[in-house]
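Might I ask for a little of your time on a matter of protein folding? Here, with my thanks, is the record as I have it:
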Amino acid sequence: MTSNGATIDGRVRLHDGWTVRPVGGPVPGPLAGRDVPATVPGCVHTDLLAAGDIADPFLDDNERKLAWIGSCDWEYRTRFTWSPDGHDRHDLVFEGLDTVATVTLNGRELARTANQHRTYRLPVDDVLRPGENELVAAFTSPVKHADRQSLALGYRPHTNHHPYNAIRKMACNFGWDWGIDAATVGIWRPVTLHAWSGVRLAAVRPVATVDEDDTGRVEVGVELEWADDAAGRDPAAGAGADAEAEVAVDVDGVTRRVRVASGRSEAVAEVELPGVRRWWPRGHGAQPLYDVTVTVGDGARVSDDWRGRVGFRTVRLDMTPDDQGTPFVVVVNDRPVFVRGANWIPDDAFVHRVSARQYAERLDQAEWANVNLVRVWGGGLYESDDFYSRCDELGIMTWQDFPFACAAYAEEEPLRGEVEAEARDNVTRLLPHPSLVLWCGNNENIWGFHDWRWEPRLRGRTWGLGYYTELLPRLLAELDPQRPYVPGSPWSGTLDVHPNDPDHGAVHLWDLWNQRDYPDYRAYRPRFVAEFGWQGPPTWSTLRRAISDDPLTPESPGMIVHQKASNGNDKLTDGLVRHLPLPDDMDDWHWAMSLNQAVAVGVAVEHLRSLGPRCAGSVVWQLNDCWPVTSWSAVDGDGRPKPLLYALKHAYADRLLTLQPRSPLPVAGRGASLPASTGSGADGLALAIVNDSPQAWTGDVVLRRLSYDGAELATVTVPVDVAARSTDTLDVPGDVASVADVNGELVLATLGGERAWWFFAEYRDSELSSPDLRAGAERVDGGYRVHVTARGLTRDVALLADRVHPDARVDDMKVTLLPGERVSFFVTAPDGLDPAAFTAPTVLRSANDLLD
């Protein structure tokens, strides 16, 4: 027995009594040689923060002041008591060590580790002793280790300023163009002492398949470890029938048992279930999940078990070349699914802090915004089971990058062995989840080799291609053969075609943010877009919590620290001034940049959806943030929704009307290009009617050209019948599309309760008047109701509720009103607030505010 933590099935969590102390590097004097109470799972930054030894790294310029932490060596230490328990074997199991560690027990070295992404199981029977035991994990500075390894492996190109590609650690932990540079060390996932006898389950791989007649099958492959394997007996020799083990697999009450001869290390059991219910992505059906229990023992006693869930569905990626190039279509249960996606980064720079509740909150926000796929980006982690379980429940498909990003990677040892080990660990762990529909070899590395001038700098050295085209596909064929894989993102389908060619596969569109302007999204007709986005600041509450600058300006010191993109503020300004005046007031600047982000991404998403079925999906960069920062996120680092999240909810709705220009646009950027026309046959305006619902969309489309005062100048009614899961395009007749007063007219399309707007002039050039809103607010059950009536045309009405209270949330945003129209917002917020505060000028906003 032990006395450190709770015992569960012979597993004792060793999470108590830890301390951490610096043992090398540029340690500040007051900390030198001093033990600090430590939390496991945790990291040194949060331990020092909890002890009051450092300020919050997320605030002001503390990131720079605390850079010394990642350059130091640290030692974690605890003691636990143990007494003989009758078990044959005892293993220490570290589910996550971050990252370069030497583990000792009672002064005996057990392992040297160098991979954040792996689990380590360390036998300790010859070291464990009755009574008190001392466990130590000594961590080497990740910054210095990466530097040393970059020399030992040989230089490989990378983005940012640390050689993160020389260490198997979360790349963005060393900083990114939205991320804090706070290289961590620590025991970031659970550590247990596992006591066991006889035989244990070393790996469990349940592969669920379903036939056309809805017969489900779960084939469970197990790897076994026998307690006496350590004695050196030949595992192939066996030990007779009396030493056999029994593996039992139960799926939804149906059980299959398999006898395994002693010493055999592998077994397979299959369970068949007739008439299973299929798992579907959200919007396409339900998400039934089936409990799976796997046990091993001698028939009378269970020595180990595994529990999880599976869903029955088929998935494939259709990249069969066609007459337009190469599609990129996710097909679930033989139904093409238009991807309405968002990219995911670690939800906290200190990843151990992300709880199951936090995962649920963030993914619930994605589901609320009509997102049906989340791509786990390759500069982060193999995400947790809490993340994947919530996606399973919500029907949010997941795309998991292997952790390689924006860099060349050595393919020699010791890196190669680490890559294979981490892949085996994590493919095995994640394969049961039905939400996981795609593995991807890397983020932008194949593109980088083509376009980022890597080749002359590599001088013939390996750069990772062998991982993406040989090692990872081989491992997936062995471990997870039912799930599609692509070597990288972007990916055209073959190495013979440029990886970022809009005619072929999935592309990343970054020239718009970096060099051009958001209307130019319409210059592309891609088959699928896996990354694109626009920056905006965090919500006001988050900004003011994180930055104490006085005065606060777009370029005050704390603001610059919390803007990581190259020339980020210049790009924000350049992307605004073509559409709206640049405000001099900080409140207006914050609203203008937040609105512009929402408008820019909304323009892109609506255009891409209008191209269906040629374009089969869009994955916005990015859903979330890992700290409070100006970035491309829709939800800021404190978990608050930005106006962009509301824009995504509108643009990703099951049913969408969108007015699109169909005149040719100039095309630029990497890879091949196409003219802007979608084949509608006419220049001018077209109405795309996007129906991603399971029922036909029928009714009368009313197209009207209006003056800004609401007067009707031209109108036409067109009956439509748009099939389920399809997009139809309707040319807007000339008398509606032909404008007499560019700056004072608009087109409005309606179908049922849905509307689409087209403004012929930019905000700044139009005849929009000063805001003229009549607003009132009242306390109601569960929150506050705010009623807003527009006396004149008002664009993009929003309620920035967090400015009243940090926990306030509004149900809608970015609503355009004609003269005389009314909207009612519901705000969830704590009791005791003055309802009138929700109508204050800095809270109730519109685009008109920015044109005074």
About this structure: Confidence is low (pLDDT under 50) at residues 231-241, 664-682. DSSP finds 16 helices and 45 strands in the chain.
